[in-house]
Amino acid sequence: MGLEKQILFFFSALGAFNGFLLAAYFVFFSKKKNSDYFLGGLLFVISVRITKSIFLFFNDKIFDIFIQIGLSACLLIGVFLDFYIKASSDSDSEKAENKNKSTYWWIHVLLWLICISIFNYFYSYSENRLLWNYFVKMIYLQWFVYILLSAWELRNELKKLFTKNTKLSESQIWQVNIFFGVLCIWTAYVFGSYASYIVGALSFSFVFYILGLFWFLKRSNSTEVKNKISKDQQLHNLESNKEKAAPKPIEKYANKKIDEQEANQLKTRIERIIAEEELFRDPNLKLPDLAEKINVLPHYLSQFLNDNLNKSFPLYINEHRIEAAKKLLLLNDSYTLEAIGYECGFNSKSTFFSTFKKITNYTPASYKKKYKK
Q1: pLDDT tens digits, residue range 330-341?
Q2: Alpha-carbon torsion (226, 34, 282, 81), positive or negative
Q3: Which of 139, 229, 307, 359 is the most exposed place for a label (fewest CB within 10 A)?
């Protein structure tokens, strides 16, 4: 093997090897969410397909069973992509309302595994190569159908890529990057020649390391923010210790609210960051995310919202979402009611409608009918 082929083998094989490691991490060591399992499954089946491509490119005498396993793995790539995007898009309220989704998803995966196993048992690659030529075309077609389904799930995020006034959240950036990464690999296999075996492998390595770089930068930025928060907390503790050393009126201990002047400053900071970055448009926004943005501890932000504003975090964010929805209802006729809900940070039409009715006492349609000029 020449130097050029050795370099190709190294980079393509390294991507596949790291794909297996990362798949194991998401399945066995991550937060144990459906989205993690599906992402781990996605990385695993792509790595199986890539491994088959690498060995076939550099050694066309490999066993037919390896070719058969590699091609069969493609039937699950689109499935895991689609379910990963659906699972990672669900907010906490959505997960509570749709507990049956998880069962449906895993039954769906199981049915595909059964179909793959039955076909492989009765029609081995070594004895039915002509049939497998047609089957491979069906595999790539099925993969593409699930890519289209994933694109539909990401339709609002994909629109934001071409909209200047809206930003994607970190989780949405991950979803979009993984979607385009899988689309890139599918394109490399379908529209290439025989050399596409190695092009697909190199595409996966490229996508893998781009995502790895993005993850590293995200972690670095998160660590920097956390360090800053830690320093602020240390200063806050020093000031608190000084205050504790001085005598205080008994009434001070009975009042849990943050000082009015400090609360007003905090409210201004929160309103400004939410308005500038439109954080409420992120359906996965959590209280720690907002606390990190304004450089305070989560429990401090929670105390402010509950004791000073008498609101829970979901209600506070939903009020901003509803205000944005009201503006779109009156100013934009090109959006459907469902699209407006998605645009403002809701993950489903039902959640949008129920929240809108709870806050405004109107349905979106009746509000638009009453106030639209």
Answers
A1: 887 777 888 888
A2: positive
A3: 307
Backbone dihedral region for residue 363 (phi beyond 0: left; psi -120 to 50: alpha; all else: beta): beta
Q: What is the pLDDT of residues 270-307, one digit of tens each?
A: 888 888 888 888 888 889 888 888 888 888 888 888 88
CA distance to 3, 30, 321, 336, 348, per residue, from 328 (Å): 60, 39, 11, 10, 17
Which backbone phi and psi does 310 adopt, to 5 degrees? 55, 40
User: How is residue 40 written in tokens?
Assistant: 């781990």
Q: Which of 17-26, 170-179, 244-253 has the lowest mean pLDDT?
A: 244-253
d(CA 219, CA 212): 10
* Residues whose CB falls within 8 Å of the CB of residue 37, separated by 6 or more in sequence, listed in order: 26, 27
| Ramachandran angles phi, psi of 30, nearest 5° | -90, -160
Classified as helix, coil or strand, 351 is helix
DSSP string, 23-35: HHHHHHTS---HH
For 126-157, the pLDDT digits (tens) are 788 888 888 888 999 999 999 999 999 888 88
**CA 239 from centroid of its chain's CA atoms:** 40
Q: Measured between alpha carbons, how far is 154 from 264 in angstroms, rounded to an integer?
A: 38
Question: Coil, helix or strand for 233?
Answer: helix
- Could you report how far apart the first and last alpha carbons of the chain are, in Å? 74
DSSP assignment string, 144-157 = HHHHHHHHHHTHHH
Longest Cα–Cα distance in the chain: 89
